[in-house]
Amino acid sequence: MAAIAEEVIDRIAPTLRPFSPVVGYQNWRDLLFLHWPVPVEVLRPLVPAPLSIDTYEGMAYVGLVPFWMIGVRPNWAPGWSAFRFLETNVRTYTHLNGRDPGVYFFSLEAASTLAVAIARAQFSLPYYWAKMGIRRHGRQIEYRSRRILGGRPRTWVRFEPGEYLGNSKPGSLEHFLIERYYLHVEREGQIWRGQVHHTSYPVQRARLLGLHDELIGAAGLPQPTTPPPLVHYVPGVNVEIFGIQPVDSSPLAAR
User: Fold this and answer.
1) pLDDT range class, residue 7, cuts 50, 70, 90
2) d(CA 192, CA 21)
3) Which of 205, 206, 225 is nearest to 217 (CA)?
4) In the list 42, 135, 137, 191, which could disulfide-bond 249, CB 3.0-4.6 Å?
5) Taking residues 3-21, what's their average pLDDT?
6) 58 Rama sector, left if φ>0, alpha if ψ -120 to 50, beta otherwise
7) Is residue 142 a part of any domain in this protein?
8) Please, what's the largest Cα pairwise distance for the chain?
9) pLDDT grade, residue 255 (50/70/90)?
């Protein structure tokens, strides 16, 4: 597949609220973004062929992102019925022939059997049930997770939020990694796209105090042997969820 110049990809349109109906609500809290640069050729065998791997200055990235999901409910349910759970995802970044830059998930751990069942059935996302926890030590935050079945990969991370950076500037590496509003998934032999909307992430730096991860390796990727060079924290955003739909992934659709 021919490479698409990074500068011609519209990275602002996905941040705009769509006109489609909202299907659900979620509040994301205490998000930690850990990122490692990875050569495109390492990711290519693990990402569906119709998707192009998104890059920043020629480099692709793998992210490990633990956070709280709070206030989770469908659009028709009252607020009091919302539930919460912890989640950790392993991800990279993709686009469709120069459009719709989004996230491709290798795996998503969730401490909720209901969330796993719904996400797998409705969105075909690779969710796994895990035993998870969060602890606070003053300003420090600690996440831990262990998958219930299979090889039972686990992750543990401890960090401290740091300097406030604010909203990421378009064109910056932070904007490329964090300001993502589309997801891509392969479903029934076709690429589908989902969308969320929220205000721009109020990004902070974070200081990593400890990390043990097995989720990246469990996804079929080379397990990093060095700490992530990019560590960011976001206290939270309130999120609207929109439906998932099939998209035309042929090169002609980009014209």
Assistant:
1) low
2) 17
3) 225
4) 191
5) 86
6) left
7) yes
8) 54
9) very low
214 falls within a domain: yes
Q: Which element (helix H / strand E) includes 42?
A: helix 40-43
Nearest to 181 by CA among 198, 169, 206, 165: 198
pLDDT in tens, 201-213: 999 999 999 999 9
Q: Is the Cβ–Cβ distance between 104 and 184 less than 8 Å?
A: yes
Query: How is residue 83 written in tokens?
Result: 């539930």
What is the amino acid identity at position 195? Answer: Q
Q: Is residue 166 part of a domain?
A: yes
3-state secondary structure of 5: coil
Write the CATH number for 197.
2.40.400.10
In a domain, 45, yes or no: yes
Note the pTM of the prediction, 2 decimals. 0.94
pLDDT of 1 strictly over 70: no
Tokens matching residue 170: 């378009």
Closest CA to 179 of 232, 126, 136: 232
Give the number of other CB atoms < 10 A from CB of residue 8. Answer: 8
Residue 56: partners with Cβ closer than 8 Å, 6 or more residues away: 6, 173, 176, 177
> Using 50, 70 and 90 to split pLDDT, how confident is the model at 5?
low
User: Which residues constitute the domain of residue 121?
Assistant: 6-254
- The total number of structural domains that make up the chain: 1
Q: Other CB atoms closer than 10 Å to residue 37's CB: what's the count? A: 15
Asked whether residue 23 carries a pLDDT value surpassing 60, the answer given is yes
Strand partners, 137: 140
Structure tokens at 167: 């909203």
